[in-house]
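Notebook B, p. 112. Complex prediction, attempt 2.
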Amino acid sequence: MANSGSVAKSIFNAQEKTVSERDLDWAVVQRVQAGNVGAFDQLVQKYREHIFSVIYNMTSNREDASDLTQDTFIKAFQAIGRFKGKSSFFTWIYRIAINTTMTFLKKRNRRRFISYEKINEEVSSSEIYERLTAKNRSEKGALVSELQEKLNDALQKLSLKHRTVVILHEIEGLEHAEIAEITKTSVGTVRSRLHYAKQQLQSYLQEYIG
Amino acid sequence: MADINKAQEKEVTVEDLLRLKRAERPDEAFWGTFDRELHQRMLQSLVKKDPWYVQVLRGVSGRIAQTTAVGAAAAFLAAVMLRPAYVEWAQTGTGAAVAQQDSELGFDGSNGLNGSNGSNGSVSASMESMGDASRGRTERAQLALAAAQITAPVTEVAMADLEVVMTPDYQIEAISAGVDAAYTQDFTHDRLQVAAYDSAAYVADTASFAGSGLATGLVY
């Protein structure tokens, strides 16, 4: 009972935090709309890494991800005058990023150029890598780069819709409802896409799982 | 050793593997370049002109909007000014007579001047002669022409009647410059402004002010 109470409290805190974040962003947006163009930098600094991460994981190419992240912010900057605050800025900018990336990937079609980001060393010494190294009896450095390649390959095999949902939920840590708002679908659709995508990934990454 | 065995016992899930992707983040140097490029592109986007096709499209859509607006205004004015006259004309029964006559003759209404109450007799006479189904198409056409000729003088009488019945409830104001018409000119300028300026202190944005030391303007 105490556990459910603490869970409810944490959900409440999360909602409260989200509301205050939304208000803060809205205040900055209003300043930009009033002509303080420099205030837009605050929004860039706040969201650039999240946006980059989503786009990078969708494209598996750091140069494309950099360009598309810039495109996203430029589009947002050009359209910010029309932003009415009906949704949060966070949802809005994520939606621009995903639409921009999807358009790019559809145009790019079958051509695939891959260039990966370096993996943070702290993470490469994490518990999961320890377990994988022990399980596969392989050298850690080789395993890290091999797994990175396999993970990116597996993600690229997913359809754009399924990839988006997996990235937003499992990598970015967004809630189902937030993803539903960003992708303009229902929570049920998000859950079903997530379930299917995980099944697919499980089959692609079988050798590392279990 | 015990820790390694314990770690081995735990199963690795898809979620665990995907969480590793969070570690693929660019370094600070990347963000420095990113910010610089983004600022440049944002500034370019502020001063960048639209491509030629967007400009053309905007011009065309502006023209279409103007034309539509003018057309709609003209249609509205026509409806407001002509409809009362038409309603009154229709109420006299003339319109109904014309319609009946046209349908009897098999006309499509193109010779709309041939209708009046007084023409009914002659028209029905000709209609009776047209009633015979055995007549050929040419003969019927000749008869129709004859009927039209017969009704022509009667039409003049009917028009005279119409003048009595129809009283126009609108007026058209004609405005023409240079003629002693009965209208007042309400669009004259109130005053003529003459301003001198110091060319050293004044920064001219347009070519029209560039070479002159005197600026004039009509104030309405």
